[in-house]
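ok here's the first one, seq then struct tokens
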Amino acid sequence: MPETRTAPTTSGIGTPYASAARTAAAPSRPAGPPPPPTREIWFAAWPVVALFILSNAAMPLYAVWQRHLGFTSGTLTLIYAAYMAGLLGVLPVAGVASDRLGRKPVLIPALLLGIVACLIYATAPSVAALVAARLLTGVATGAAVSAGMAAVTDIAAGRRLGPLLASTGMVLGAGIGPVLAGVLSETVPGPTVTVFVVEAALLATALAVVSRMPLPRRAGGTGTAAPGSWVRLPAVPRDNRRHLALGLAAFAPGISGTGFVLSLGPSLLSGLLDTANRALVGGMALAMFLSATGVQFALRRTAVRTALLASGAATVAGTLALIAAVHTATLAPLIAAVILAGAGQGAGQLGGLTLLSRKVPATRRAEANAALNAGGYFLAGALPVADGYLSDAIGLPAAATVFGFVVAALAVAGAALVAVRGGEAVECGRMGPDGPDEAE
């Protein structure tokens, strides 16, 4: 049973844990069922992992489709844009629907849409089919970052493991997808079919997990569960706007930094190593997202503000390293960019999600997650598209330099906001079955 503190939290991010401020008496709690066991939190993270495996599984296969279907690089940008349109298009409704109806009524259709997308990928006869598959993938992923991540923190019932697994599940899945697709496409016949048959099977197991999740039931359309329109820009309660702004200050530049690496890194790596091996390209993405996963476990005992500031520093260093790799055509700065960009996204994502999971009421949690991801993905999607057009006008090295400095400047501005307006620190959340957090 958690202990109480003698003074309430007044800062936006919380107060440090101080043993002198604790009392030995445990607060009384209303009678109710005990929280689910810790293993249920781990199970709850699997649907998030499975959907994010799907989100990036197509990345190593674009060259195969491009060769078979004969589309241009401009058409490839359109296919990418379909994913972002699906993701950003569903966030205005997925978060609100999840908070009103519950997590399962949003997650189950999302997983079914993901399976449909797998079938389209596996049999895609045209560019239009790929666009449709990417659109459905974006919709399914949007549900994962709102309802799926909220389900993990709901089942955690205040335990610190919840935000950690919700956040690492996203980046771990995003890293597994490309390497799984890359290895299968290099080693088995019918690569585009085999990859998505395997992914459909993974999504089917996630459906089984969701069907047995011990989630609380919610009354639809009443109470404080996202009052107002069902379709709207994701938002948070007025008292939590500061928390959302601080999370976005780190997460948005961080995920833009990983997008920068994913847009340039594969071609740089292939040129430097003189290979077009798809498993190697997938391995690069896995290394980046393993860095994002590892940094979150490394920071699980630190303060939220420390995590957000670390995100800004890593994002700045990662973008500058990638600029150096573009101009010098050397491997060392590219490797540094991959590791640092992953760390930047991971730290910012953990800090932002932890803030929202602790401060935003549970009845608005999915919409808060949607707001955080909408802001991050909008920036991460818009900047690479602009960079593509800029590359046509002034050349790749100059455009990459401009793009990198824009991302670095946003990361510096975000870190400055956190440093000035972040308030006092609170632990990011330790991993393990250590019970609920202290009362805030």
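and now the second one, same deal
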Amino acid sequence: MYYKEIHLTSAGNTYNGCLYILREKGCSLSSEDYGDEGLIYRAEKDGATFAADSPVELLGLYTLWENLGVDWNHQDPNILDEVTLGRYIVEIWGDKSLVNISKLVANELNISKRSKNFLVEVGLPSKEANLSIRFLVEQDRIIRLSEIYTKNSFCLGHFKNLLVIGIEEDKYYLCIDETHDSEGKVVSVDLTSSNPSVRFVNSNIVSFCECLTVYRELKIKAEEADINDEKIHSLLAQRLKIEINEVDSEALSSKENWWYLIIEKIQKKRLSLFGIN
């Protein structure tokens, strides 16, 4: 059967369809008028009862029970938090500044399902984002480090298969290390010397984007605030440290880690490192 593109919103004209489905599934239906509080719609099947403010919600409750049964209070993974985080990132960056990875590409990555869903549903900042990081991710492709560093690919060793998401200051490669564990930690690789070195950034790509978004939001607020230059740098560094620690405590677990150095640079008044125009 061919289905044309469709966009549904919860509204009165969907109520009857929802009740039709519930009846077809063998539910007994009723409603009760609570005056100013409105109608309550009810469904019952095999001793299980459901009550909601609308037939749409009623069908949702039934579907929850139909799929999860007594385990309906399902909190892991916390998809609600994931969706909330996605909305926050889009609000700060703007949807036109984010690149969504195709499901086909994401499914080929050896990272967690949560990280894959994030890349598909939310995405990464685009090349046009006003950062010192030049993001290289495209919708239909994520390149390997060996594909862009051809000067001496032999010296890369096991780094050659890292997935490149961007270049910082045109010399440090921000990568996803999918060989480390199922999460796919984010690292910064320095290829300026004959012996490549790696610096830890975040535990996974979701944490990296959340930390980056926190920084962007704080930077915008700092630039808008009527505070002297000395205090802005100090306050931003302090607040960023607190926020990043809440998102991913491992990011600040060592003085050699990427975010630790970023905070040090802010304290030394190198705020323009991630300049926002």
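notes on #2: The CA atoms of residues 28 and 44 lie 5 Å apart. The beta strands are 28-33, 39-45, 48-52, 98-99, 124-125, 133-135, 163-168, 172-177, 185-190, 197-202.
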